[in-house]
Amino acid sequence: MIYNLYFHNDFDGIASTAILMNFLKAKGDKIAAFYPVQYPINFKAWEKISFKKPTIIVDFIYHPKAKIWFDHHPTAFIKDSWRKNFRAKKLLRWDCNYKSCGSLILDSLKKDFKFRPKKFLLELAKWSDKIDKFAFKNPRESISFKKPAMKLFLLLDNFSVSKKILGKIIKSLATKPLRETSKIKELKLLFKKIDKEIKKSWTFYRKNIKISNKVAFINETENNCLKIRPIFSYLSFKAPYSIIFNEKSKSFGLTVGKNPWKKINDSIHIGNFLRKNYGGGGHQNIGGVNFPTKTKALKAIKEIENFLNK
After folding, report:
1. Domain extent listing, the chain
2. How would CATH label the architecture of 199-308?
3. Going edge to edge, which strands form the sheet with 281-282?
């Protein structure tokens, strides 16, 4: 069968796509086209979207038209009726217990199809866990920017990568180790640029992080260097919560999170809070949302900061 694949445009999204593609290719199936999707999502538009069929959706909101769907976000269902009528099958899986969608897909394929992934796919899923859940062993590992996976994460977080190059990255990850994918000509050029800019980013974050009671805040729209969340987390490790304000592709985004290295006794579910109030999404400890205007984003920042500081 020839599928059309829709994926969340971040590291876990492309890793998930690559893992699934490796499996499908072994079955003789093909991917006709890749379609990156991103938050925030217009719920009414998503409900009525005209997909290219047959459709695969990974690491993104559920849709009943999907023939194959995998996701690990608690905010995966935008309609109660979709959640009520959803029935898990071998290629329709939702499990919030997974750190990444990549790991969910890998385990599901191993269990349901006796899939035997090669070592480079296991490594890819491992990095998806670390990056998507921010599940690094310690603060030092989170700033290991020489690793190919971290460079790819920084690339996707800072640049609008064309569908053509995204497709090339995914196809490479589906067949080769991360270190080989990093040798793609277009990536090598972008990675060199990233290496040069990292020092500027350290300087920016050291000078501009602001702490308000329990919340660390950084306004990344005011800098002209790379936006690097791990540096921000590394330097603001004493604050229980964080808000990152950034601008990308003519929209204004917020990343809201709990400190991964600090025990916080609360019942706040970041992803659900952002979905309910702003149309965003995410997990228990981290989530994100985009706004069409800076004014709306700034208003939300104040509201979220007040909520977290209660």
Report:
1. 2-181, 199-308
2. Roll (3.10)
3. 210-212, 215-219, 241-248, 251-258, 286-291, 281-282
Pick one of 3.90.1640, 3.30.540, 3.40.1350, 3.40.1130 as the CATH number of 2-181. 3.90.1640
Answer yes or no: is pLDDT of 309 > 80.
yes
Across the strands, what pairs with 55? 4
Q: Which residue has the tokens 């490796």?
A: 22
CA distance 127 to 135: 9
pLDDT category at 75 given cuts 50, 70, 90 is confident
Can you tell me whether residue 160 is helix, strand or coil? coil
Amino acid in the structure at residue 234? Y
Contacts 24+ apart (CB under 8 A), 270-275: 271/73, 271/74, 271/75, 272/74, 272/75, 273/307, 275/75
pLDDT for 168 equals 96
Residue 48 CA to residue 30 CA, distance in Å, equals 26
